[in-house]
Design brief:
Number of strands: 5
Helix content: 25-40%
Structural class: alpha/beta
Radius of gyration: 12 Å
Strand content: 15-25%
Oligomer: single chain
Length: about 100
């Protein structure tokens, strides 16, 4: 399921927020409180870091990889999963601040 940027911003505290970009992309900024679980390692890391029943919001740069990540988590049994429509690119275009990756 998709979640638009404004709704995500207003309800962000309700979600486990997961950045599925690769480490070299994190310097561009993160959504506040985001876990960094690259798509390439998501299947291995999700069971270690994500609560299966908690609402989860995935994002990447533009929305393509987070859609793939959503399918991966659903296959692993996560049912309350959303992806940020347009990714962090749409977040920034909406003028919403990002957190520092440090």
């Amino acid at each position: 399921m998709n979640l638009d940027v404004r709704t995500a911003y207003q309800t962000l505290e309700r979600y486990q927020v997961v950045d599925v970009r690769e480490p070299h992309e994190w310097a561009e900024g993160l959504l506040p409180g985001a876990l960094r679980l690259p798509l390439s390692k998501l299947e291995q890391l999700a069971p270690l870091y994500l609560e299966r029943e908690a609402p989860t919001l995935l994002y990447c740069r533009s929305g393509n990889r987070s859609q793939e990540a959503l399918k991966t988590l659903q296959r692993l049994g996560y049912r309350r999963v959303w992806q940020l429509e347009g990714g962090i690119k749409a977040w920034r275009e909406a003028g919403i601040p990002c957190a520092s990756p440090i």
